[in-house]
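Can't paste images in this forum, so I'm doing it all in text. The chain is below; anyone willing to post the predicted structure tokens underneath?
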Amino acid sequence: MNYFFELLISGLTRGSIYALIALGYTMVYGIIELINFAHGEIYMIGAFTALIIASVLAMAGMSGLSVLILAAVVAVIYSAAYGFTVEKVAYKPLRQAPRLSPLISAIGMSIFLQNYVLLAQTSDFLPFPNLLPELPFMAPYAGFIGSTEFIIIATTAVIMVLLTLLIKFTRMGKAMRATAQDRNMAMLVGVNVNRVISNTFIIGSALAAVGGVLIASHIGRINFYAGFIAGIKAFTAAVLGGIGSIPGAVLGSLVLGCTESFATGYVSSDYEDVFAFVLLIFILIIKPSGLLGHKAAQKV
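Text version of the structure:
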């Protein structure tokens, strides 16, 4: 039974990281119906930024929680700026173009950012310091869940609640919902659609950066290709939960993370991706819109 709970916590931890990335995918798709394939690279850039800042602060003699906070804040701001820039450079000029054009642009931006970081850093894995503190009150539960896993799961839960409140009760959130429902009508009633789209990219990129800092601290290493793998998994989770649905992105991420964890624990680590994608295919056969997705009406 202990082994089962260990796998469950591991799955929830994986799923929490996937959720932070998947939220960016599903928010962008919900607003402009675009799959931002460069989103995984934003996650990777956030992790590299945190590594650089943490290294500089360590050389300056700083340590402890202050390093985590400063590294995370700088990573979030830097990644948000990247997300904003990517939208303006790669997607905004193609908003009225055929749907295939922004998709190709997104793939091109993903490859560009990968190679940019490869040339700026290295192709090797770099060690990443464990910035997450040990929590004294978690000591009695060390056999089931560690401080790192607890922080990752709790952080994702808090962010999910804050994001839900933002979308439901703030002026920005109402504008985002109006734009997602009907962009042209939102413009007619005075919504600044360009600002809404930019804010969506900024928020999604910031969440991806948080995920990058957390998972890099948990795993202990990072390289330029990490964003591609994490991005594909998070995109899979978003589709599994229902692309465009924020609760669906979180649910799909947790289901995917637990599936991978139990497949690794009870079968073999060689088959974790197989089980994950078989589950995706099975769910989409039964419910093509995803677990919490809704069938969209087609305009004719």
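The first strand starts at residue 126 and ends at 127. Residues 16-250 form one domain.
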